[in-house]
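Can't paste images in this forum, so I'm doing it all in text. The chain is below; anyone willing to post the predicted structure tokens underneath?
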Amino acid sequence: MQKLEKLEKLDSYKQSYTTAFPYFEENLIIHMVYGKHIGQYIQSHGLRTAMSLGVGHTVVAQPILQQLTNGTLERYVIVDGAPQIIEDFRHSLEPAPEGLELIEGYFETFTTSGRFDVIEAGFILEHVDDPAFVLSRLHQFLAPGGRIFIAVPNARSLHRLLGNMAGLLDDLYVLSPSDLALGHKRYFDLDTISALVREAGFKIVNTEGLMLKPFTTHQLNTLNLPPSVWQALVNISADYPEISNAIYLEVTE
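Text version of the structure:
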């Protein structure tokens, strides 16, 4: 019964990944940028195996799946603990490309054979009970010379710093109702996510920001910004991970 209840709870977050969620479009932009980084890395290095922790916004998986269909990748494994999310994703791909494996399981306990040139662990460490344990498990799945891609929301995003300085946000690390709706359990900043990665036995080889967010989502939406401005916020953020809305890391052993 306890396992069933946990699975049902994971599926309950499904609505937060639809267009009905107020932050959907903004999250989509960030996930698309993150996924594009990974797809380009796989293609440029001619890598053969990849694994993702979580389905979430499927736009992260799309550029990786593209590397599977174009023949660069031979094997792509996706692990997720929410059965309905996995099933919906499976149906969206019919027919599923050869070499894709979908595993229903928890990040803390799943098993699979072989090792992977790339492990994608974006936007999952803020969700799990013990992020240090989940990260440490990845040693057994990472191929020699392999790379892990990590992304997390940033507590010290510019809009949160501004809100705090203006007296509108008492605690930079407090979880909002929207965070809770997504199943978030904590916030990271650049120092804490970097320390966590190093303590898990990995080396950081690249750090970037994923979208600079100067104001709240509601405030930005009222400005009716053109796509060129949103793209500029993405481009500027790469050099400012400490104040970007999300932090992107590439790590290796």
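The CA atoms of residues 221 and 252 lie 38 Å apart. Residues 2-252 form a domain with the Rossmann fold fold (CATH 3.40.50.150).
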